[in-house]
Write a structure and sequence with these properties.
2 domains, alpha+beta, elongated, four-stranded antiparallel sheet, Immunoglobulin-like, single chain, five-stranded antiparallel sheet, about 150 residues
């Protein structure tokens, strides 16, 4: 016949294991949720081009070798969206010995208050990007670099 104290110790051990299992489950779920949130955030950078603020978003973070969607929001000095510009994205990989130059450009299309395009980084590595904004005959630009994976 078991003593009352033996039963209590067994019950405490079972309860402790249940608590540990529950906390492990909560920890794993919180890790999964936080990773999903971090991975879902776009690559984003804000730059100046003359008196314009240019906010650039790429749908993958980090950008990848292959197709990436880019969105460019342009805000003027009076904090209004610029929707009357021609916007071109030029991108190139720094020269490497034995390889042909990789210089590309793509026109954007205005959708709402955002200029959109698709850029295709042909390989992983560092890419120099330039956003050229032409408005009323005047062109300004800003540059940023991404490391495509």
């Amino acid at each position: 016949m078991q003593k009352w104290t033996d039963i209590t110790v067994v019950n405490l051990k079972e309860e402790r294991m249940k608590i540990i299992a529950f906390l492990t489950l909560v920890f794993m779920l919180s890790l999964f949720c936080s990773f999903d949130t971090v991975a879902a955030k776009d690559y984003e950078v804000s730059k100046k081009a003359g008196d314009l603020t240019v906010v650039i978003k790429i749908d993958k973070n980090p950008p990848v070798a292959g197709k990436n969607n880019i969105e460019i929001a342009i805000i003027d000095a009076s904090n209004k969206a610029v929707t009357d510009a021609k916007v071109v994205v030029a991108y190139s990989m720094p020269p490497m010995p034995g390889m042909a130059p990789m210089n590309y450009k793509t026109d954007t299309e205005l959708k709402g208050n955002v200029y959109k395009a698709q850029i295709n980084y042909s390989m992983a590595g560092s890419w120099n990007n330039e956003v050229r904004i032409t408005r009323s005959g005047k062109t300004v630009s800003t540059r940023f670099t991404v490391d495509a994976k």
